[in-house]
Amino acid sequence: MGGSAYKARGRLKELAGKLTGDERLEAEGKTDQAKAKAREAVRSLRERARGVMDSFGRS
């Protein structure tokens, strides 16, 4: 599951938790959104690292 899917699922869980008063579900939603942000950050870092490696390899 990609970052976008975690983000969407997290938003839905958080909203459902707020609507039903389920604090645990709301917290799970926030956790899923945090996972999505972390995945996106790791993906961005990997892409940057590849770019740096490519620039050194081509010199």
Protein topology:
Layout: H1 3-20, H2 23-57
Helix pairs in contact: 1-2
Short overview:
The protein has 59 residues and is an all-alpha fold.
What can you tell me about this protein's structure?
The protein is mainly alpha-helical and 59 residues long. Helix content is 90%, strand content 0%. It has two helices and no strands. The longest helix is centred in the C-terminal third of the chain and has 35 residues, at 23-57. The mean pLDDT is 90.
Number of strands: 0
Strand percentage, roughly?
Answer: under 5%
- Residue ranges: pLDDT <50 for 5 or more in a row? none
Please report the number of helical segments.
2
Task: Estimate the mean pLDDT confidence.
Answer: 90
Based on helices, strands and strand pairing, what is the structural class? mainly alpha
List keywords for this structure.
single chain; 59 residues; mainly alpha; 2 helices; rod-shaped
